[in-house]
Design goal:
alpha+beta; two-stranded antiparallel sheet; globular; three-stranded antiparallel β-sheet; about 30% helix
């Protein structure tokens, strides 16, 4: 007889939890806090969790978009898109230093739409208006992926980023 074993359990929210929040309308952070404080699961989550549309997230890193090396420096300009259509999560602001000592993720940009294409289009528009000076970012590379026919057609595999990086 075969059984199941857990190799690892991560009892924390993942970086991508915002995508789940966008399509379910559930604040996972608040739910986790309520559960930790003793509330019953039935009181925290709806009985029927629905899914609304599509959501997609891009992680914006301070890195060279061609060679993918980290890019340290001072954020001379840091203007995330301000649009009620997308969600921005960041701990940076203009004037902050990006050092080589920590993870160089500058922000997460999450777009929600009625369809996958709508969500992708909103994310592309948001990334196109994101202004950063002082460090290089991966935004040009992320946009190349999002705008590629393969990605838009759902033909995603582990070689997609490699293939696009070669072009």
């Amino acid at each position: 007889s075969f059984g199941f074993s857990f190799l690892e359990t991560n009892t924390r929210l993942q970086v991508e939890h915002a995508v789940t929040e966008e399509i379910t309308g559930i604040d996972l952070v608040a739910a986790q806090i309520r559960l930790a404080s003793g509330d019953d699961l039935d009181a925290v989550l709806p009985a029927d969790i629905g899914i609304r549309g599509h959501a997609i997230e891009a992680r914006i890193y301070a890195e060279d978009p061609v060679r993918f090396y980290p890019s340290a420096g001072v954020l001379k300009v840091f203007r995330p898109p301000y649009d009620m259509q997308v969600r921005i999560e960041t701990g940076y602001r203009q004037g902050n230093a990006v050092t080589p000592h920590y993870d160089p993720m500058l922000a997460k940009v999450i777009a929600h739409g009625g369809t996958r294409q709508d969500a992708i289009d909103k994310l592309c528009a948001a990334l196109g208006s994101f202004e950063v000076q002082g460090v290089k970012t991966n935004i040009p590379f992320v946009l190349k992926i999002l705008q590629s026919e393969r990605f838009r057609g759902g033909e995603v595999d582990t070689g997609l980023a490699y293939d696009i990086a070669k072009t």
